[in-house]
Design a protein that fits this description.
CATH architecture: Sandwich
Strand content: over 45%
CATH topology: Jelly Rolls
Order of helices and strands: EEEEEEEEEEEEEH
Number of helices: 1
Number of domains: 1
Radius of gyration: 22 Å
Shape: elongated
CATH class: Mainly Beta
Oligomer: single chain
Length: about 190
């Protein structure tokens, strides 16, 4: 959903390789929310390893826990990667109920999804960001940093900022009447 309100992005559209996700582990990358809002979708730059393969990535939005992925805030979805060696932008819709706060660190991560018969490759090519991994194959496993700022995986977190209230016409009328009454009172005195 490129073009929607972007909460955070590391997307360039040009890949320089990537890292594979298989049943051997999960990976996550840290990001800082650019504005306070509700997460609506994510975009990931994904690929599989062959023309007849099916690759799925279970994507998760997680809280930060002292510099490592923490509690799962939302299982965003089973994102299908391109069934070839080429990378493509894959999108998954969020429930639209998870709120993020501007300036706060979060993690976007994934593990090979149900139905995947090959490793998913999450494409690099963005800015270096902190990366963490598990060896358990699950995002609720024990996380550890993988070389600090070691990866440049491409992603985009999309969302809606909170709605700003627009006064109803009756509010404008009431305010105008009060201002007029004060003016009339001042003129009489």
């Amino acid at each position: 959903m490129l073009g929607a309100a972007t909460i955070a992005t590391n997307y360039t559209g040009v890949t320089s390789g990537g890292f594979g996700l298989s049943s051997a582990g999960a990976r996550a990358v840290q990001f800082t929310a650019g504005f306070t809002g509700t997460v609506t979708s994510i975009d990931l730059w994904l690929s599989a390893q062959g023309p007849s393969n099916t690759a799925y990535l279970d994507a998760y939005l997680m809280a930060d826990n002292a510099g490592l992925p923490g509690a799962i805030l939302e299982h965003i979805g089973n994102v299908q990667g391109n069934p070839s060696a080429n990378f493509m932008l894959a999108n998954a819709l969020a429930a639209g109920t998870t709120q993020v706060t501007a300036g706060v660190k979060y993690w976007i991560g994934g593990a090979t999804g149900t139905g995947s018969n090959v490793a998913v490759v999450w494409g690099n090519g963005g800015t270096l960001l902190p990366e963490a991994g598990t060896t358990t194959g699950a995002v609720n496993g024990a996380w550890s940093l993988l070389g600090g700022n070691s990866t440049a995986v491409q992603f985009q977190i999309n969302g809606n900022p909170p709605a700003t209230g627009v006064p109803e016409p009756s509010t404008f009328a009431l305010t105008g009447t009060a201002a007029l009454a004060l003016l009339v009172r001042r003129v009489r005195n």
